[in-house]
Design a protein that fits this description.
This protein is mostly helical. It has one domain. The chain is 45% helix and 11% strand. The chain has two helices and two strands. The chain starts with 13 loop residues before the first helix and ends with a strand.
C-alpha cells in the first residue's frame, strides 16, 4: 500500500449499518474501515476461486462435509 488515504462517502440504510456492526464483532474488526478491508479480501479470494470453478464458490464450515456448504454464483 502507498500509505495514502482517500475519503469514501456513501449512504447506508439501517439494515446495512446493523450488518456492519455485526461483522465488526464476527470479524474482530475494530472499525468500519477494517470491516470493509476484510470483506474485500474475502471477495478477492472468492473471485479467484470462482474463476477456477465456472463462477461458483462453495463455502463450507470447518469440519463440514464437502457438498454440504452454501454455493454462491459470482458470475451471471
Amino acid at each position: 500500500m502507498s500509505g495514502k488515504s482517500k475519503q469514501l462517502s456513501f449512504v447506508a440504510d439501517e439494515e446495512t449499518l446493523a450488518l456492519i456492526n455485526e461483522l465488526k464483532k464476527e470479524l474482530k474488526a475494530p472499525t468500519t474501515t477494517a470491516v470493509f478491508r476484510k470483506a474485500l479480501a474475502i471477495a478477492r479470494v472468492a473471485a479467484e476461486q470462482a474463476r477456477e470453478a465456472n463462477g461458483v464458490v462453495t463455502v463450507t464450515g470447518k469440519g463440514q462435509p464437502a457438498g454440504e456448504g452454501v454455493s454462491i454464483a459470482l458470475q451471471a
